[in-house]
Design a protein that fits this description.
Elements (H helix, E strand, L loop, with lengths): L9 H34 L5 E11 L2 E9 L9 E6 L6 H18 L9 H4 L6 E5 L2 E7 L13 E8 L4 E9 L3 E4 L2 E15 L2 E15 L3 E16 L10
Antiparallel strand pairs: 1-2, 1-11, 2-3, 4-5, 5-6, 6-7, 7-9, 8-9, 9-10, 10-11
Length: 246
């Protein structure tokens, strides 16, 4: 992947002020829910869960697919296994390349190189705005992602869905409101990032990440990319016993 959105009469003034205070109090209550949900996500030891990831990428018509398996265990040199590559059993060379890539990711990300998303950096709690409070709580917020460059500031808008029954963030969607340039010679006209989650007992875990992006690179090269990572088959493995690796 190359590039991986406030009249003057006393009574009306009183009513307006009271409504404003009620709205502020309500939004503060919702903000507390979101902050608690973020804390619960942060406290989930994702590296202690085994799971499978199905990856799909379509880059200007070039489609690649893979299935990967993560199994935390102290006696396994690398917890990742490439199950299939483009529908086929991977060759020894593909397995070696895959393991090398995962080890490099583990060195830079930690936690075995598995999924890492900092919701506290993504969701601006101070600027959350209530959209609706019905079966699910939906709030919007401006998004700033450093990796997308300074030109994206003010052009990305986020929208989160909070499951009020299960009390967790079920989905976060980010879209751009204007074209932006994340890097020299690249222009993104359409961007949609979707992060969805599931809750198993008290653990909040990734369910799916999806990106749809369109734009241009170097004037003549088209950017038209879709990628989807779907997580499944979660099993709690517990913290590995380090003594087993000795």
């Amino acid at each position: 992947m190359r590039y991986r959105y406030w009249l003057t009469l006393t009574l009306p003034l009183f009513i307006t002020t009271a409504y404003s205070a009620e709205t502020t109090s309500s939004e503060q209550k919702f903000e507390q829910k979101i902050e608690q949900a973020i804390a619960e996500f942060e406290q989930t030891p994702r590296e202690y869960w085994s799971y499978q990831v199905s990856r799909y990428e379509n880059e200007e018509g070039d489609i690649t697919q893979s299935i990967e398996r993560y199994t935390p265990a102290a006696d396994i040199d690398n917890p990742w296994v490439l199950v299939s590559a483009n529908g086929k059993v991977p060759t020894a060379k593909q397995q070696q390349k895959f393991v090398k890539k995962k080890r490099k990711q583990a060195e830079s990300k930690g936690s075995g190189g598995n999924f890492s998303l900092k919701l506290r950096e993504l969701i601006n709690l101070d600027e959350l705005q209530l959209v609706t409070d019905e079966e699910n709580l939906i709030m919007s917020f401006p998004v700033q992602l450093a990796r997308l460059g300074d030109d994206a500031v003010g052009k990305l808008q986020g929208r989160l869905t909070y499951n009020q029954q299960e009390q967790f963030i079920e989905e976060i969607m980010i879209v751009n409101s204007a074209e932006f340039s994340p890097m020299f010679s690249a222009s993104i006209s359409e961007l949609t990032l979707t992060f969805s989650f599931i809750k198993i007992d008290s653990a909040v875990l990734p369910y799916q990440h999806k990106m749809d992006m369109k734009g241009r690179f170097a004037l003549f090269s088209e950017i038209d990319e879709t990628s989807t990572d779907t997580y499944s088959d979660y099993q709690y493995a517990g913290k590995p016993d380090k003594s087993l690796s000795k």
